[in-house]
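Q: What does the assembled structure look like for these inputs?
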Amino acid sequence: MIRRQVSDLHQELVRYGLVVWTAGNVSARVPGEDLLVIKPSGVSYDELSPENMIVCDLDGKVVEGEHAPSSDTAAHAYVYRTMPEVGGVVHTHSTYACAWAARGEAVPCVLTAMADEFGAEIPVGPFALIGDDSIGRGIVDTLRGHRSPAVLMQNHGVFTIGKDARAAVKAAVMCEDVARTVHLSRQLGEPLPIAQADIDSLNHRYQNVYGQPQAR
Amino acid sequence: MIRRQVSDLHQELVRYGLVVWTAGNVSARVPGEDLLVIKPSGVSYDELSPENMIVCDLDGKVVEGEHAPSSDTAAHAYVYRTMPEVGGVVHTHSTYACAWAARGEAVPCVLTAMADEFGAEIPVGPFALIGDDSIGRGIVDTLRGHRSPAVLMQNHGVFTIGKDARAAVKAAVMCEDVARTVHLSRQLGEPLPIAQADIDSLNHRYQNVYGQPQAR
Amino acid sequence: MIRRQVSDLHQELVRYGLVVWTAGNVSARVPGEDLLVIKPSGVSYDELSPENMIVCDLDGKVVEGEHAPSSDTAAHAYVYRTMPEVGGVVHTHSTYACAWAARGEAVPCVLTAMADEFGAEIPVGPFALIGDDSIGRGIVDTLRGHRSPAVLMQNHGVFTIGKDARAAVKAAVMCEDVARTVHLSRQLGEPLPIAQADIDSLNHRYQNVYGQPQAR
Amino acid sequence: MIRRQVSDLHQELVRYGLVVWTAGNVSARVPGEDLLVIKPSGVSYDELSPENMIVCDLDGKVVEGEHAPSSDTAAHAYVYRTMPEVGGVVHTHSTYACAWAARGEAVPCVLTAMADEFGAEIPVGPFALIGDDSIGRGIVDTLRGHRSPAVLMQNHGVFTIGKDARAAVKAAVMCEDVARTVHLSRQLGEPLPIAQADIDSLNHRYQNVYGQPQAR
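A:
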């Protein structure tokens, strides 16, 4: 059940230290319907359960649920409306990724693990205020046609996308991991670049060969 | 019961890594009475319980409790005496916030999450010795008329206030989180500023709209 | 049983924060046989058990197991094929070690704990693409004749070796620990060198005297 | 029972992240006897119990216990032999403290919490090889007549002393905490000094007034 999956995946954000208090959220598209499941607003991660997840339509209007949905619901909904291939969206303020985002600087692709997962730098999206479609549009305009499933929204945080919610959570975990490693590497010098042909080759292999056959 | 709430909230300080050994404390105003509930001095977080919390009057004198109250009680009491709108106070030596405090430098508001919670930079209060009302006066003089619920006391640590103890704990958690992110961001360049009008707009929305209706 | 040992040792990688998601692996040589036991590919650390470990021959071909083996199996197998004294291999993308690896910079031996465990700087191996024996050859060419049981593969991560899998895990834990400490030390100045004769003396004592007699 | 106390206190080193693998140890003087209790060498923290603690005389010779004592026993024993007021000794390679130690640089006293606990900078002791009394002598020569219960042994790690083992563990925890905060503070500028008279006043109050009457 998709409510349980979305509820459980929030614990991965906690486990990997990507969120504090109530400041991050996971959503999933309900397969075959114009609906999404998302975290309730302002509820702590300890209190999340399949039952208190919120179901919204793709305009972000609540269809089912007793609480208000995450205040980021409009951004999630915009992504689902305009990127039909996306089945999951994650938003965090994870520390190192936000440190890059506050400078409006992309994370350069200098690790083979980045080439695998992101296939390129992790790009920066525009500064955008909450309240209308600005954030959603900034996410989609940045990620459409980009290999990276993660975008650093300037002065704000990270949004990641995936074929399902688990893939989007994985991208959020990896985004913080590589943002941290590259940050630390640059503190004492310049990381060595990886040739574009090698990035392409690593990304192609990882996206097509890695993992268990049945798991992708 | 307010003793239980204060006792339990200390575990949030532990969970978010804001304290080591016995070096941080939470207090709450007893609603409708000139009393506060606070941590006993020098007792480890593992041993806290509703029963060993200390009740003091607003001059910091013990009214109920077998232990001595936190050595920071005078500062908490001063805040409750002079800011009647405050229902909770938290004190920590959280790492990144103290790193700013040791330089006597305010944390600039360069993240939308900071605009939400703090509405401005996190300001620095004066260097003050323990033993009289100097610390309390420094806190109140800095925070009165400021949007931020957190102050960095120079060379010392963080004090946060809130309408209740939970809100003050949240401010302490968010203070460390943004102090860390902005610290890291500045290590590799200058974070981009957020326009004052955007800070105002974000803060207004967050303080008035965010979260569950019943929860605020 | 060696499957259990390999399965359990992955939990040490988790405990010491050396891995996120599925990005690290432990293997062991099966004593007296031309076989190795390794993690299945793309399976989370929570789901590992003795039963789902994969047994491969020393060309990396699966002999027993329902999943595909780790995508790093070829590198592990190359090490076992060419270094008969090696009984365990570990691969991680641990943060600080990768920060050095991304710059292609060796970690200098400026801590007595490094002299103990590594006996020298932790060296850098070549940039190598996955898919053939390039990574394995890079590991072996760098570590053969070197005291260090750890190599930082450029832009990639850490490989460690040991007389058994536990020793290789220990080397991976210590590698990240010293990579972090030396990184931090260099942020504020230059660490003091340790004289080569002292490094030699420390390493000799540690490799021959330290620990319980029966445990080495 | 003192074996239990020493065994349990090792868990505090783990809890506060001061140690990895087997690289840190706690000892206590047996009250009224020329004996000390210390960790066995090379045994993991999970396996420690009151039963496998080692009892040694003040020359470091084993009096009771089936394992070899910590390889740092000679240093602990030297301290007990020459500083009769010391009831507990702790040794760690905690990260930030070692980062200062690798540069041979004292941690300046720029936090009120440092003035409380250390009353001064945390000083650096000499580089010394393991194997004779060099390390013990370096510790004692540095700490005798110094307010600080912690010394950073150059290129090596931290030794702390206390009236009992718990006090020494507290000093080790606080040492890493302030070493980290001051490190971070200095990354972005210079911490403000605290006047010597204020350090004196804070230290005097803390060492004589703080905490529960019965607890000190």
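The first helix of chain A runs from residue 2 to 15.
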